[in-house]
Amino acid sequence: MTAPGVEDGVRETPPLDERRLHPVTPLRRAWAPIAVIIGWAVHDPNQAQEQLARLTTATLLIGLAVFVPAAALYGFLTWWFTHFAVTDSELRIRTGLVFRRTAHIRLERIQAVDVTQPLLARVAGVAKLKLDVIGADKKDELAFLGEDEARALRAELLARAAGFAPETAHEVGEAPSRELLRVPPRVLAVSLVLTGATWGALAAALVVPPLLWLATHSVWTVLATGLPLLGAAGASSAGRFVGEYDWTVGESPDGLRIDHGLLDRTHETVPPGRVQTVRIVEPLLWRRRDWVRVELDVAGSSNSVLVPVAPRPIAESVVARVLPGVTVPPRSALSRPPRRAGRCLPVWWRGYGLAVSDGVFAARHGLLRRSLSLVPHAKVQSVRLAQGPWQRLWRIADVHVDTGANKTVTARLRDAQEAAELLGAQAERSRTGRRDARPDRWMAP
Amino acid sequence: METGSAADTGTTGAEPVWTGLPPRLLSMRRLLLVVWLGLLALAVGLLLGLLVGPGWAAFALLPLALAGWGWVMLGRNWRSWRYAERADDLLISKGVLWQEETVVPYGRMQLVEVTSGPVERHFRLASVQLHTAAAATDATIPGLDPAEAERLRDRLTELGEARSAGL
Fold first, then answer.
1. Residue A382: its chain B contacts at CB < 8 A?
2. What is the ipTM metric for this complex?
3. Residue B50: strand, helix, or coil
4. pLDDT of residue A396
5. B101: which chain A residues are within 8 Å (Cβ-Cβ)?
């Protein structure tokens, strides 16, 4: 199981410090064939029962004797053929038994590094390392590594990505983190109670199955619709509570640290200068308490939450850390669309707003659930002005700002003249905004 | 709006120097329209005339009317397309009823693509497409003179390198 040098005789590449994943990994992989069997049994319960009834103890034992070693061998082989190595500029992952796959990930292009620990992995003392890279559909992950090894590797990757010399990258170690915010469990629970989606899912789970029962009197239909609904209700309330439990945001030279989870612990790191847009969402029922939720978009990553719930002043101070030198425009600074915009979009036109400051382009939308999107000028990829025929009649236009995270922030229903000026000015700002931006390798001398 | 060789640079802030698309693009689009709708009219007229009755063949006028309407629409749409190279960004303006104006700073360009299909090649046309890191950026200039398309590509790539900014 050791001695990785055995097969080295035929390798043409210069010897790298190639490493294997943690020896626990095969156990995880061994689950795959069993999951297939279970899936089949659930999918087709009648036939599965028939087949099981026909089995005698002897066949069962023989089956187990074949099946378990086969699964173990499969797990062992996938583990044996997965290697990774960190070079000066890249993280290389070689994997695959039949279909070989080699991924070279450029370190300065890494958008975020996550260390996650599912419950069982916590028990076993191992962790998963996930990397966000631009242009990749899914996250590349190293599962599993020893807990300390994962931490050390994350520190090393970030240090090298930051531009520390390769020799010193090992010694730099984990950058010290300073806590910015911790969400108390009580606040999180109250915030979930005050979220419409929680109640919507619960109501659907409670109302739809009885109605279906009255309509069809078929247990299977009721179960088939009721169980997913219950699952959705659970995920949106208890699931979110468990996932967002003990949410901590910290600041370190490596970037922003986000740690959360009750059962599965996740430790995310977003290096500085990678945030493309920040959204401050304010659901209707939170408004009285002045609570907000902060989400951020990073290129190559799915929608991620920065702060699940926090009082507005604290949330704004965290946003100021994420986007240095940016103050969140207060509500009074947002300019509303002109009154005639009501002809294009009755009632809801009041929900839109726009503010442009030195650092950001900020657009708000939503009447009940307000959402304010902030785009740093340096992250704007292109600016578009669009105007339909009805809008032209009322001299109204929309301005779209495209960012690198494939998100478009739109300032809707602006005065046409103002929008035209905004288009030119925003292009100019996005061009000059980049000059003061930090380099990709933020620690490089 | 007539085709002209693009003026080299407009300074930022000053009124941009707009360039239209070559008339050959309009000819190509109109030809394609007439060919396809003409074939459709012929097929409809023959089928209905022979199978149902001669009177029904009048339905063939429908695609012809469509072709006439499309002829005018294509002209308006062609006139609406224009682009301008400024010192630091490229402007593309298009659309008649739904107007859209796009600004792409040169520094944000990740890739400049020149494509040309068989029909386009016959009409000596090529399209230039700009890609930035944002997929929503739809900056395409359809149907340019191949020489102009290549000049634009080289110039954009050169300017993009000089002002490169990435993400």
1. 102-105, 108, 132, 134, 136-137, 139
2. 0.81
3. helix
4. 92
5. 384-386, 423
